[in-house]
Write a structure and sequence with these properties.
The chain is an alpha/beta fold. The chain has one domain: NAD(P)-binding Rossmann-like Domain (Rossmann fold). Helices cover 30% and strands 20% of the residues. The protein has 14 helices and 18 strands. The strands form five sheets. A seven-stranded parallel sheet has the order 7-6-5-8-9-11-16, with helices on both faces. Strands 1-18-13 form a three-stranded mixed sheet. The longest helix has 14 residues. It starts with 8 loop residues before the first strand and ends in a 6-residue tail after the last helix. It holds the Pfam family Epimerase. This is Chloroplast stem-loop binding protein of 41 kDa a, chloroplastic. GO terms for molecular function: UDP-glucose 4-epimerase activity. InterPro entries: Epimerase_deHydtase, NAD(P)-bd_dom_sf. One of its GO terms (cellular component) is cytosol.
């Protein structure tokens, strides 16, 4: 457990399989929700809530209500406006690949220029998988989306680029004027207000000043025949170019301790990107059921920081050493030292299960094995990496590190 001083607690994680429940992903409960009382330097205190509010904005959901999904087998022409950076780019790639395999026509409009350095990274280096399957890839300015796609008509548009209204509005306005029937938007689960009641469910309070919020509101007001908003959290999967599990592998393969802020028992949610893609595809197949809804685009399990270290250790086949620390005591900003929020932060895909009949396929233990193979194949285990912040923390804790 963590301490309030600069002293550290060290534990070793064996790669041998155990039955310790904390090491594996923890199911995020549907009912009741959990109350948490967590401070970074104190153990977690969890108790069960006697109530379970689960309203969904802007449509109210009821776990007792029954609905019949109307699945469309109609071939559709789909446009994906895809970001050229960050972790969300891989969502568009997987979504396009899944749509193409289902017989839809797909065009991916990537922000910027095809010859830019950003296109030398995955998932852009794998766009040949889309074109060989019949998909189209174009580049351009989303503010002039009509020009970029050459006046083509689309049934569905996924906006997977903008984080603010100035960026998304031109795309949404064009889609509305062009007669697009369904508009989907990738938002973020990060807009939920910090709460003592977990997991976050659709309808929970959001931060009024979050830029995604104004975008969600604007899309709802445009009155598309069908519209939906998706709020992803952390993700993993081949082609992702934003560090998640790599941060842990970087330390484990080099024999360095994995530094965890607080107790290491903070809960978070990591989803394989195929889950995000399948949820989006479910919305395309069920436009009526999806319409007017907000979906937490996440898997249905949570995992602790400590559990994630163990899963990464098992995937790599290398024993991991954990050092716990209090960020305030060592004078380090946890945001700069650790890839996840230093708090309980996880959402539940309640709306997708109830309204789309969707289910998760994320299996972190197996998914991380896939990611470690790719980590080795690209030679990242041999790459020179600086651990300056880690070293400052270890120095403050007086923990020696073999060089």
């Amino acid at each position: 457990m963590a301490t309030a001083s600069a002293s550290s607690t060290i534990s070793l994680l064996s790669t041998r399989s155990t039955t310790t429940p904390r090491a594996s992903p923890i199911p995020a409960p549907s009912f009741p929700r959990l109350f948490s009382s967590f401070a970074p330097s104190n153990p977690i205190s969890l108790s069960l809530s006697s109530t379970s509010p689960h309203s969904i904005s802007p449509k109210r959901s009821s776990s007792s209500s029954s609905s019949t999904l109307s699945v469309s087998a109609e071939k559709k022409n789909v446009l994906i406006v895809n970001t050229n950076s960050g972790g969300h780019a891989v969502i568009g790639f997987y979504f396009a690949r899944e749509l193409l395999s289902s017989g839809h026509d797909v065009t991916v409009l990537t922000v910027g220029e095809e010859g830019s350095d950003k296109m030398k990274k995955p998932p852009f280096t794998r766009f040949s998988e889309l074109t060989s399957a019949g998909g189209k890839t174009v580049w351009g300015d989303p503010a002039e989306v009509g020009k970029a796609v050459g006046g083509a008509a689309f049934d569905v548009v996924l906006e997977n680029n903008g984080k603010d209204l100035d960026t998304v509005k031109p795309v949404a306005d064009w889609a509305k004027s062009a007669g697009v029937g369904q508009f989907l938007y990738i938002s973020s689960a990060g807009i939920y207000k910090t709460s003592d009641e977990l997991p976050h469910v659709e309808g929970d309070p959001v931060k009024g000043d979050a830029s995604h919020v104004s975008v969600e509101k604007y899309i709802a007001e445009l009155s598309f025949s069908s519209w939906a908003v998706f709020r992803p959290q952390y993700m993993t999967g081949s082609g992702n170019n934003k560090d998640c599990e790599e941060w842990f592998f970087d330390r484990i393969v080099r024999g360095r301790p994995v530094l965890l802020p607080g107790s290491g028992m903070q809960l978070t949610n990591i989803s394989h990107v195929r889950d995000l893609s399948s949820m989006l595809s479910s919305a395309v197949a069920n436009p009526a059921a999806a319409s007017g809804n907000i979906f937490n685009c996440v898997s249905d399990r949570a995992v602790t920081f400590k559990g994630l270290v163990k899963l990464c250790s098992q995937a790599a086949g290398i024993e991991a050493k954990i050092v716990y620390y209090d960020p305030k005591a060592v004078g380090i900003d946890a945001k700069k030292a650790f890839p996840f929020r230093n708090m309980h932060f996880y959402a539940e895909p309640r709306a997708a299960k109830e309204k789309l009949g969707w289910s998760s396929s994320t299996n972190l233990a197996e998914d991380l094995k896939e990611r470690f193979k790719e980590y080795i194949s690209i030679g990242r285990d041999k790459k020179q990496i600086k651990f300056d912040i880690d070293d400052k923390i270890l120095e403050a804790l007086k923990v020696p590190v073999a060089v």
